[in-house]
């Protein structure tokens, strides 16, 4: 089955959370069956690559992975994942998103199990590679999709392993697999162990399609934990932060130590360097350019911009920059708290950048800044949900939330610096990264969630006020 109607697939793409082209004029130019899996009693399953182009963007072609299970009759159990009917060999067949089909997902589990003896198995052009976890897999494991994801899709096989299927794919090493493989080999206790991945050759280049990891059954989402901590603090105005049960500083410190451990292993296993003064000049220039561009989208930044420009001049005056492999898109939502400590996940980096750019060495302070902004978001999101009767109450809540955030941020940075065994002499650089991240957030929120724009704008106003009081240069 190689002739799948483009309109049918287009109608399904716009209903998914993971398709990045919603809201933009696009068209499907190719639906390619990369692998056709046929072996009863498992359902026929197609692994398709869908190529999308955008109107007015000659270089904007993207490829999405869409596995489809195929049935002769309608399957009510997975009706929510119905893609549509197709005519094949003179009869109507029905297509479903295979990630929601427990029977179809056995193809991937069987592939990984079959790869274990030699570390690799090929099935209809798909290569299953194994690196660890030989005793964990059992053909009786049952899959269930993970809800709520956006850019990718994941399925859990009972409480044993989880497979992330990359929806938007490209040729080359996916940083999520590359970094997890190195950290797993190094024995890191701050990640979910990588068990293997799936890849295929497409037009003479390797495309990595999915990865299999340890399922952290006791894990809680880091951002949800932080939100709960803030809510506990704000629920009882009569309590101090220490007495409320809503103090997050201990967890923030442990998370800082975990990040320092991960950064240390990344520094040891990937290239790192000390760059000269030209690197900070270039960095400052990029920050200034992003701020100037943001002014066009967020006029509220006008009064904030001058002190930020002064901060960036301080960055330009620095004598160099230490760079290494980093996470690249770190925030509390990329962390899990387990019974055995913090785990850092999703090393894919910024989804909008090419793999080659995501793999470039960068300053570890960028990751630190991302986490600091995430602490601020936790307080901002909770405050938006609080119904306060008077202005006095709102001011009091804001002050308590600010105390929570300051304690978390200070504990995180102090623990990170101590565990990384580095001198805490990067205040100018870290503050600039924090401001740069908040500028990005201000643009994003203004365009996508205007009600949230106050979170980064408030932070930027405080940064600007601090810079006016204590200029860096």
Written description of the protein model:
By secondary structure, the protein is an alpha+beta fold. It contains 13 helices and 18 strands. The strands form four sheets. A seven-stranded antiparallel beta sheet has the order 6-7-12-13-10-9-8. Strands 1, 2, 3, 4, 5 and 11 form a six-stranded antiparallel beta sheet that branches. Strands 14-17-18 form a three-stranded antiparallel beta sheet. Strand 17 (335-338) and strand 18 form a beta hairpin. Helix 8 packs across helix 13. The longest helix has 30 residues, at 391-420. It is globular, with a radius of gyration of 24 Å.
Question: What are the defining features of this structure?
Answer:
alpha+beta; 473 residues; single chain; 41% helix; 7-stranded antiparallel beta sheet; 6-stranded antiparallel beta sheet; 25% strand
Name the helicity range. Answer: 40-55%
Cα(first) to Cα(last) distance is 66 Å
Total DSSP helices: 13
**Share of residues in strands:** 15-25%
Q: What is the structural class?
A: alpha+beta
Number of strands: 18
**Main beta-sheet annotation:** 7 strands, antiparallel
**Approximate shape:** globular
Rg value = 24 Å
Largest sheet strand order: 6-7-12-13-10-9-8
Indicate the low-confidence ranges by residue numbers: none
Mean pLDDT score, rounded? 92
Q: Short description, anyone?
A:
The chain has 13 helices and 18 strands.
List the helices and strands and how they pair.
Blueprint: H1 6-13, E1 26-39, E2 42-54, E3 57-71, E4 82-88, E5 91-97, H2 106-115, E6 120-123, E7 126-130, E8 143-145, E9 152-157, E10 161-166, E11 168-169, H3 175-185, E12 194-202, E13 205-214, E14 220-221, H4 222-235, H5 241-244, H6 249-269, E15 273-275, H7 277-297, H8 305-316, E16 321-323, E17 335-338, E18 341-344, H9 355-358, H10 364-385, H11 391-420, H12 427-448, H13 454-469
Antiparallel strand pairs: 1-2, 2-3, 3-5, 3-11, 4-5, 6-7, 7-12, 8-9, 9-10, 10-13, 12-13, 14-17, 15-16, 17-18
Helix pairs in contact: 4-10, 6-11, 7-8, 7-12, 8-12, 8-13, 10-11, 10-12, 10-13, 12-13
């Amino acid at each position: 089955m190689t002739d799948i109607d483009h309109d049918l697939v287009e109608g399904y793409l716009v209903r998914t959370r993971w398709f990045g082209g919603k809201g933009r004029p696009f068209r499907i130019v190719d639906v390619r069956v990369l692998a056709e899996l046929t072996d009863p009693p498992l359902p026929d399953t197609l692994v398709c690559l869908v190529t999308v182009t955008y109107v007015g963007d000659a270089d904007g072609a993207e490829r999405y992975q869409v596995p489809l299970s195929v049935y002769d009759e309608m399957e009510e159990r997975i009706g929510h994942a119905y893609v549509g009917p197709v005519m094949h060999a003179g009869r109507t067949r029905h297509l479903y998103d295979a990630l929601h089909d427990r029977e179809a997902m056995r193809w991937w589990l069987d592939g990984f199990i079959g790869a274990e003896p030699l570390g690799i198995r090929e099935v209809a052009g798909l290569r299953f590679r194994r690196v660890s976890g030989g005793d964990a897999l059992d053909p009786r494991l049952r899959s269930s999709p993970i809800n709520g994801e956006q850019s990718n899709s994941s399925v859990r096989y009972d409480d044993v392993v989880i497979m992330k299927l990359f929806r938007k794919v490209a040729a080359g090493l996916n940083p999520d697999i590359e970094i997890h493989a190195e950290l797993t080999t190094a024995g890191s206790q701050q990640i979910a162990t990588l068990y293997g991945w799936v890849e295929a050759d497409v037009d003479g280049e390797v495309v990595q399609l999915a990865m299999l990891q340890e399922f952290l059954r006791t894990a809680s989402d880091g951002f949800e934990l932080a939100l709960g901590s803030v809510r506990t603090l704000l629920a009882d105005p009569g309590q101090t932060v220490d007495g409320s049960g809503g103090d997050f500083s201990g967890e923030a410190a442990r998370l800082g130590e975990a990040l320092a451990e991960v950064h240390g292993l990344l520094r040891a296993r990937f290239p790192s360097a000390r760059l000269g003064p030209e690197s900070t000049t270039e960095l400052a220039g990029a920050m200034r350019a992003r701020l100037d561009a943001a002014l066009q989208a967020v006029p509220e930044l006008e009064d904030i911009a001058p002190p930020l420009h002064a901060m960036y001049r301080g960055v330009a005056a620095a004598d160099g920059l230490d760079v290494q492999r980093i996470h690249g898109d770190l925030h509390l939502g990329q962390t899990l708290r387990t019974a055995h400590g913090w785990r850092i996940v999703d090393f894919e980096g910024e989804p909008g950048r090419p793999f080659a750019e995501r793999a470039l060495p960068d300053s570890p302070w960028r990751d630190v800044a991302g986490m600091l902004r995430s602490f601020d978001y936790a307080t901002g999101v909770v405050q938006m949900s609080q119904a306060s009767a008077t202005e006095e109450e709102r001011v009091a809540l804001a002050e308590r939330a600010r105390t929570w955030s300051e304690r978390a941020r200070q504990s995180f940075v102090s623990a990170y610096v101590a565990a990384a065994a580095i001198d805490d002499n990067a205040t100018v650089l870290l503050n600039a990264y924090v401001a740069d991240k908040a500028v990005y957030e201000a643009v994003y929120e203004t365009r996508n969630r205007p009600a949230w724009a106050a979170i980064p704008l408030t932070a930027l106003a405080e940064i600007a006020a601090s810079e006016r009081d204590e200029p860096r240069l």
